[in-house]
Write a structure and sequence with these properties.
Layout: E1 13-17, E2 23-27, H1 31-61, H2 67-92, H3 98-103, E3 105-109, H4 117-125, H5 127-139, H6 141-144, H7 151-165, H8 176-181, E4 183-187, H9 195-200, H10 209-212, H11 217-227, H12 235-250, H13 259-279
Antiparallel strand pairs: 1-2, 3-4
Helix pairs in contact: 1-2, 2-4, 5-7, 11-13, 12-13
């Protein structure tokens, strides 16, 4: 997550408090963007599943394998792809899937912390109950429930509509998976790295490797958001609060009026440290990760 204070959110705002106690306002993703992202992801899932099944279909056409085996493989492939597609991408892309990335949205922790693997699993596994099982019951009730009564399709349609319209009736556009996992989907701000800070804050302060290892990528991005908020209401107070928290954590003293320069220097040093560690295949996502 790369929050920014550079602009006030244009749509619905969701406020989170960073580990340093600074409130950040994030723009909640519009319902249309979420639906569009889901449709794109379903298209990608269909294409991926088709790519996996084409070799088996070709073999079945020349009687190398039986039709029953192809059908069984198709059911298994659809289940595995639709189950792990969302989980894998949101783990690898920090809350984004190809559809979400295309629409410029991402899932984040609703309380402002790093998005955990447990939350990603919870928010995506509930999609089976919200969407996929009702879809199967609606369009192929006999396949899912042999001998299913006719009213099952109507019940499934009502189930899908109830869960589908739920985000329209709460402020943060939360679906059931978000409520279970404690997540919210926001518009992803453009990631603009603060190259100038790394240049102008070279030797302003010195930090040890032990001090830099206190924080991770998540805290670096939060710090970037605070520094990019220059000129916004409350910016000076945010800078002072964050500087005090970091100094307390690192055990260093600060001079009056030095907060901005201190944070810029710490940002530059921490970013350099994390980039160096990444070169050796060690990525620390937040201060909660073990080294």
């Amino acid at each position: 997550m790369s929050p920014s204070l550079a602009a006030e959110p244009a749509g619905r705002a969701h406020e989170v408090v960073t580990p340093e106690g600074v409130p950040l306002r994030l723009e909640v993703a519009a319902a249309g963007d979420r639906v569009g992202a889901l449709l794109l992801d379903l298209l990608f899932i269909a294409l991926l599943t088709a790519g996996l099944l084409l070799p088996l279909v070709a073999l079945a056409m020349v009687s190398v394998v039986g039709v029953d085996l192809v059908l069984a493989a198709a059911v298994l492939a659809v289940f595995l792809v639709r189950t792990f597609y969302f989980v894998w991408f949101e783990l690898a892309w920090q809350g984004q899937t190809p559809g979400k990335r295309r629409l410029g949205i991402r899932a984040v922790d609703a309380q402002g912390g790093p998005l955990s693997a447990e939350a990603i699993l919870a928010r995506n596994l509930t999609r089976e109950l919200e969407l996929f099982l009702p879809m199967i019951a609606l369009f192929a009730p006999g396949a899912a429930f042999p001998g299913a009564p006719g009213w099952l399709a109507l019940l499934s349609l009502g189930w899908m509509l109830a869960f589908g319209f739920l985000p329209l009736f709460n402020r943060d556009r939360l679906r059931v998976g978000d409520l279970v996992a404690g997540t919210v989907v926001i518009r992803a701000p453009a990631a603009v790295l603060l190259e100038d800070l790394s240049i102008r804050a070279r030797a302003a302060h010195e930090f040890t490797e032990a001090q830099l290892d206190v924080y991770g990528v998540f805290e670096l991005q939060v710090l970037e958001g605070v520094l990019r908020g220059a000129g916004q209401p409350g910016h000076d107070e945010a800078v002072r609060t964050v500087a005090e928290k970091i100094r307390e954590k690192l055990g260093v003293e600060g001079a009056a009026g030095d907060d901005q320069a201190f944070l810029e220097a710490f940002y530059a040093a921490l970013r350099g440290r994390l980039e160096k560690r990444l070169l050796f295949g060690r990525r620390r996502r937040s201060k909660h990760d073990r080294l």
